Amino acid sequence: MQRMFIPIALALGTAALSAPAAAEVQVQSQGPVVDLSVTKTIRAKPDMVTVGAGVSTIAPTAVEAMQQNATAMDALVKRIKALGIAPEDVQTTGINLNARYRYDQTSREQVFDGYQASNRVSVTLHNVERAGPMLDALVAAGATDISGPNFAIEDDTALQEQARKAAFAELQSRAKEYAQWSGYSGVRLLQVGESVSSSAPMPMLKRTMDAVAAAPPTPVEPGLVGTSVTVSASFEMTQ
Question: What is the C-alpha separation between 97 and 164, in angstroms, rounded?
């Protein structure tokens, strides 16, 4: 006799314990058990995009490097907000201050060469068509490096549901096939679980001030992004 413990409150012929978050269901199986896992991905057009921008400054002292960086970053953030980006869609992602060293060929030693300060923000756009113009605007406003774009779907609940149903239907079909091949007539669900993930093309775009020309906006193609649901289940083979 085999025992399966399920970390979710599903009523499969036995009573579930009432304690929230720690509920377990104990199911006993008489026949052989088959464990299966299926992943299904549903792809759709993204409706949001995130781009990153940062400024770096170099100065003889740490204080000067940070002060210069703060001035440059303040101008960049003001420009972002002036373009109609809501404050909640602008987020600081990293501030760094590091000492710089250079190798002196004469003395063959590392020589202190000042400090470098950097500050980066991410900007979320709810219109993917704005990605290219926004990247150009960030550089024009003083960004010394940019990154992205990273595409996503703001609410992929419907896509998850489609992927979940498709994955579970295939699980049941496979389980029945295994049962038939093994001389059994049916299956009984013992345990089920899932994990959800999203995937998208990652076109890492990096440009500097020197790379920006007075030309068309940077072309950005959103393509499709995918929402994947992996469903795992255990089935008992029944007569």
Answer: 46
The count of other CB atoms within 10 Å of the CB of residue 53 is: 29
10-residue mean pLDDT profile of the chain (239 residues): values are 37 37 54 95 96 96 97 96 95 97 89 96 95 93 93 95 97 97 95 89 46 66 94 95
Query: What is the token pair recorded at 140?
Result: 């024009």
Q: Is the pTM of this model over 0.85?
A: no
Q: What are 219's two structure tokens? A: 């072309």
Cα–Cα distance for residue pair 236/213, rounded to 1 Å: 65
Token digits of residue 66: 């940070």
Tell me the helix, strand and coil percentages in the chain, rounded to 5. Answer: 25, 45, 30
Alpha helices in the chain (DSSP H): 62-82, 131-140, 157-181
